[in-house]
Amino acid sequence: MLTLNSMFSSFFLWLLLIFSVLSPHVMEHAVSSKWTYGVNYGRIADNLPSPHSVVTLLKAAKIKNIRIYDADHQVLTAFQSSGIEIIIGLPNEFLKDISVAEDRAMDWIKVNVQPFLPATKIRGIAVGNEILGGTDVGLWEALLPAAKNVYSALSRLGLAHTVQVQSPHSEAVFANSFPPSSCTFRDDVAPFMKPLLQFFTQIGSPFFINAYPFLAYKNEPQHIDLNYALFKKSPGIYDAKTKLHYDNMFEAQIDAAYAALEKAGFEKMEVVVSETGWASRGDENEAGATLKNARTYNKNLRKRLLKKKGTPYRPKIAVRAYVFALFNENLKPGPTSERNFGLFKPDGSIAYDIGFTGLKASSATSIRVLSFKGIGSSYILGFTSCFSLLLLLAL
């Protein structure tokens, strides 16, 4: 008969052995690889859940990367200790003022960024949104100095290594994008775009593009195959110059951006999709804006992003994208589609099924079970079996 001390000594020796075998696998699950699926959290609405409820919703959906379009303190406070990484926005209306002097950028960061770090994982600042190619040329001129001042202020505060500076663009910056290899920046945009890209290359920032197959289809439904836009089976397109075939428009739009960057001299810059999505409702003249199409696009997009694959032209660079949007925004101006891009309803339930569960009442037990799922049932089973065997051996 073993003594009590020897029994426990044997038990803990075996326990250490088991964890030495299992720990690499556990760590493999605990340390997340580079993200590919994020969501834009717009809030131009009067019926949305509280930011704290949004954190619960995102955790239930296992969404770990979001963008917001401002630096709302209530949101940033709610996301403290959530583990969710956030890109905040420096709205367009602040650009001209921030571009004047670094001290103005410093003041903005000291109020809207620094107090929330490190508890809130602010990982980037989007300086403006869809500036170049827009109607206000004064903002075109302010964009680069504003971005430089924001980066300089971050550097002085020792934050530039964790908070990246970016600026999302619309497809309006391109002169053409079909076929993808022919894409170039507009002649009037290029003098502003190239210095901006040079700066982003120096600080290691990617190229952010808002890519919407929905908008392309809506504008030219007679020329674009809906199946091609929705990731469904279709003939696709063939780019004769690169000899590459595209079976979906999303990847073609990304590779068009890569082609434009390459022609401008920035072939090593990564493209990140800062917005993409599909409206579930629209006006009579908004072709394709249906719930069925929104579900199909977003479900297929999610599957595609979770594969962590590249595009035909850049196969080694996994596509990363922020889906637009988390909720329908009932106060957004413009056509009906603008208010109907949401994946979720204001009560936290799903707008349509693409694999998310939405907010549900959960017991403490079910929460614990979900946390174990992250480790893997096979490892839990193995640990339980070994634990039982050790008890038998000890006795």
TrEMBL record:
<comment type="similarity">
    <text>Belongs to the glycosyl hydrolase 17 family.</text>
</comment>
<keyword id="KW-0326">Glycosidase</keyword>
<dbReference type="GO" id="GO:0005975">
    <property type="term" value="P:carbohydrate metabolic process"/>
</dbReference>
<dbReference type="GO" id="GO:0042973">
    <property type="term" value="F:glucan endo-1,3-beta-D-glucosidase activity"/>
</dbReference>
<feature type="signal peptide">
    <location>
        <begin position="1"/>
        <end position="23"/>
    </location>
</feature>
<keyword id="KW-0732">Signal</keyword>
<keyword id="KW-0378">Hydrolase</keyword>
<protein>
    <recommendedName>
        <fullName>glucan endo-1,3-beta-D-glucosidase</fullName>
        <ecNumber>3.2.1.39</ecNumber>
    </recommendedName>
</protein>
<dbReference type="Pfam" id="PF00332">
    <property type="entry name" value="Glyco_hydro_17"/>
</dbReference>
<dbReference type="InterPro" id="IPR044965">
    <property type="entry name" value="Glyco_hydro_17_plant"/>
</dbReference>
<dbReference type="InterPro" id="IPR017853">
    <property type="entry name" value="GH"/>
</dbReference>
<dbReference type="InterPro" id="IPR000490">
    <property type="entry name" value="Glyco_hydro_17"/>
</dbReference>
